[in-house]
Design goal:
Layout lengths: L1 H12 L4 H50 L14 H12 L6 H8 L16 H11 L6 E5 L2 E5 L5 H15 L12 H12 L3 H5 L4 H15 L3 H5 L6 H11 L1
Antiparallel strand pairs: 1-2
Length: 249
C-alpha cells in the first residue's frame, strides 16, 4: 500500500511527464499486482496451515478424551472365559472407575504402580498360552538358554492358524464390505491390533503381489479412520473404538 501511495503521489506531481512514464508506471503496477497476488496466496497458505494445525490439535484432544474415558461395567454376568470374568470383576469393583488406557495396562499385567497391583491380572501371557495348549493349538516345551531353562509354547495345530489367517485375508479381499461397521467386530479389532503389534504383514506375506497391495491398501483405509468419530455412529461399540484409539493413535 505504501509503494502504491508513493507512486500515485509522484504521478500527480509530475503531470508533464505522464506520457513518458506511462509505460514504466504500467509495468510497475503490474509487478505490484503480482506481488499482491503472491502475498495473498502466501496468506491463504498460512491460513490453511493454521486451520489444518487447529484441526489436528482438535482431533488429538478428541482422541485423548476417548481413550481416557472411564469404563463402567454394565453387567458382570459370566462369559465362560476365566480371564474375561476376572477382568469384569475387577472393573465392577474398582472405585473410582479407571480409564480405558489404565485398564489396558492393568489387564495386560504391564503396570508397575504399587497402588494398583491388586487390580492387575496375574500371569496373563502364561494363562493365555495354557488355554491354547488345552485347546490343542500350542504345546509346551523346555528350551535351554545358557544358565536356565525357559518354557516355550510352539505351534502344533497349523490348521487353526491358517484358518485364522485366511479369515483376515478374506475380510479385506473377497469379503471386503468397505464399511467398518458392517465388518465382524472381532475381525476388525484383530486387524487393527495386529497392525499395531507389527504382525499383520505376516498374514499377507503368502499373497500374490496384487492381492497384497490391495489388502494393505484397505487396511490403511481402516487405520485412517477416526475412532472418536466412528464411536458416535449408531449401533457401534464405543469401548472397542476407545481401545483402538489407545493402540493406534
Amino acid at each position: 500500500m505504501t509503494s502504491l501511495t508513493q507512486r500515485t503521489s509522484g504521478l500527480v506531481q509530475r503531470r508533464t511527464e505522464a506520457i513518458r512514464s506511462a509505460a514504466a508506471d504500467k509495468e510497475r503496477e503490474s509487478g505490484g499486482e503480482e506481488d499482491e497476488v503472491r502475498r495473498g496466496e502466501e496468506e491463504d497458505d498460512d491460513k490453511g496451515d493454521s486451520k489444518e494445525t487447529r484441526l489436528t490439535l482438535m482431533e488429538e484432544v478428541l482422541l485423548l478424551g476417548l481413550k481416557d474415558r472411564e469404563v463402567i461395567c454394565k453387567s458382570d454376568a459370566p462369559t465362560g472365559d476365566v480371564l474375561l470374568d476376572e477382568a469384569l470383576k475387577h472393573i465392577k469393583e474398582t472405585q473410582p472407575p479407571e480409564t480405558v488406557q489404565s485398564w489396558i495396562e492393568l489387564l495386560s499385567g504391564e503396570t508397575w504402580n504399587p497402588l494398583k497391583l491388586h487390580y492387575q491380572l496375574r500371569n496373563v501371557r502364561e494363562r493365555l498360552a495354557k488355554n491354547l495348549v488345552e485347546k490343542g493349538v500350542l504345546t509346551t516345551e523346555k528350551q535351554n538358554f545358557l544358565l536356565f531353562d525357559m518354557t516355550t509354547h510352539p505351534l502344533t495345530n497349523s490348521t487353526i492358524k491358517q484358518r485364522l489367517v485366511k479369515k483376515v485375508q478374506d475380510s479385506v479381499l473377497e469379503k471386503w464390505v468397505n464399511d467398518p461397521h458392517r465388518m465382524d467386530k472381532r475381525v476388525l479389532s484383530l486387524i487393527l491390533l495386529a497392525h499395531s503389534s507389527d504382525v499383520l504383514e505376516n498374514a499377507f506375506a503368502p499373497l500374490q503381489d496384487d492381492q497384497y497391495d490391495l489388502g494393505m491398501k484397505r487396511v490403511h483405509t481402516l487405520l485412517e479412520l477416526e475412532p472418536e468419530k466412528e464411536s458416535t455412529k449408531p449401533n457401534t461399540n464405543e469401548l472397542m473404538w476407545a481401545v483402538v484409539a489407545a493402540f493406534t493413535k
